[in-house]
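U., I forgot to send this yesterday:
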Amino acid sequence: ICGANVLTTHRKTCGQSFMADICGANVLTTHRKTCGQSFMADICGANVLTTHRKTCGQSFMADICGANVLTTHRKTCGQSFMADICGANVLTTHRKTCGQSFMADICGANVLTTHRKTCGQSFMADICGANVLTTHRKTCGQSFMADICGANVLTTHRKTCGQSFMADICGANVLTTHRKTCGQSFMADICGANVLTTHRKTCGQSFMADICGANVLTTHRKTCGQSFMADICGANVLTTHRKTCGQSFMADICGANVLTLSFPKPFRYSPSFPFYMNPTGKILSFFPVLY
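Result:
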């Protein structure tokens, strides 16, 4: 969650970039009106996306907007790919009928109660009240989930799911055991800074979007270039990177020091790993292997 000005220059030029930005409401104003088909996950002021929302229809969107902005859109989109942080009532009707929609919603805890118990296989990333998903969590097993729940809700599920696709904002201890064993799991975790320390050194190929402490990715950011990232960092951390990366896939929630140990030096190299480095140990291409 960076300062509004950090991405200003980048936003006006990237156009087709894959973006998940938490910026000031005005930063993306011009971009939003012209991008049309862009893949966007934006936390903006409620009015910024008003015009865009009514016309995009099939756009891939994950928006944190004012509750009323998406009201009309929600009732008609049906199959849209959406991850919305809206007022609890906005999605009430939609939730009961959508069934198979791809959704990542931050709603009031009661809104999804009925939906949760029946959807089963739905693709969901929900920030709900801790108790709402209790029953669902214990039975869904393979569901695609990105949940911000009470730390205890997912305790049992976490230890058994193994290969589940997860993006969890839980208590730091909840995922400790899971993290050390999952290896290839697809994860976007908001955990305590120490929880992922060991995991980071061994997971290698994991897909991760982590909300960690803040200086951690500083060195990595300046060299990774093409890395696939979903990070919410301090405004200055990515400043240099943002101006040069252009096409990077980024949605970063980082703090500053947590992943330092994730990038030990020197890096070891094997032809079987999807990264290359020059003699100085700098990563030169896609998906560095960290261990």
